[in-house]
Write a structure and sequence with these properties.
about 60% helix, two-stranded antiparallel ribbon, about 5% strand, mainly alpha, about 160 residues, extended
C-alpha cells in the first residue's frame, strides 16, 4: 500500500459492550509489585499486606486482594488529594533514601527534611479539601459497617 491508495471495506459492524474492570491483583502479584518498586523487605512485605487487611482496606479471597468499600474510598480520596501517597515511585524513593541513611550515604536530617516538606504539602492539600475527604470516608465507613452487620446476620 501507498499513501493515496483507495481501499474497499469488506466488512463493518457495531459491537455494543460495557467495559469491564481489570481483574483484582492476586496476593503473589501484589508481592511481586512491592518487590519491583522496592516497597518493604522480604521480611516485612507480608506484614504490609496483613496491616491493610486488618485496617479493612481489602480482603483476601481465593488468593485475590478484593478492595472493600472503605479501601475504594481511601484510594479515591488519595487519588484526588494526595496522589503521591499511592504512587509506588514515591514510596520506593522514600525506602531507598532510608536505606541510604543506614549505609551512611545520606544524612538522616536531610532525608527527614525532604520527606517532611513533601508531607506538609500533601497535608495542606488534604486540609483544603477536608470536608469532601471526611464526607467520602464517613460514607464508606457507614457502608463498611452496614456490610459487616449484614454479613454477621447471614452467618
Amino acid at each position: 500500500m501507498r499513501v493515496g491508495d483507495e481501499l474497499s471495506i469488506v466488512k463493518a459492524w457495531v459491537e455494543e459492550r460495557e467495559t469491564e474492570p481489570p481483574p483484582y491483583l492476586s496476593e503473589s502479584e501484589l508481592l511481586r509489585l512491592m518487590r519491583k518498586y522496592g516497597i518493604g523487605t522480604d521480611a516485612t512485605m507480608q506484614d504490609h499486606i496483613h496491616t491493610n487487611v486488618i485496617r479493612g482496606y481489602f480482603r483476601i479471597r481465593n488468593r485475590q486482594c478484593i478492595p472493600t468499600p472503605l479501601g475504594k474510598a481511601v484510594i479515591n480520596v488519595l487519588s484526588k488529594t494526595g496522589n503521591e501517597l499511592i504512587d509506588p515511585l514515591f514510596r520506593s524513593r522514600m525506602e531507598k533514601s532510608l536505606m541510604e541513611v543506614t549505609n551512611g550515604s545520606l544524612r538522616p536530617d536531610d532525608v527527614l527534611f525532604t520527606f517532611k516538606s513533601e508531607a506538609r504539602k500533601i497535608y495542606e492539600k488534604f486540609m483544603d479539601k477536608q470536608k469532601e475527604v471526611s464526607m467520602e470516608l464517613i460514607k464508606a465507613l457507614k457502608e463498611s459497617l452496614s456490610n459487616r452487620k449484614m454479613g454477621s446476620k447471614a452467618s
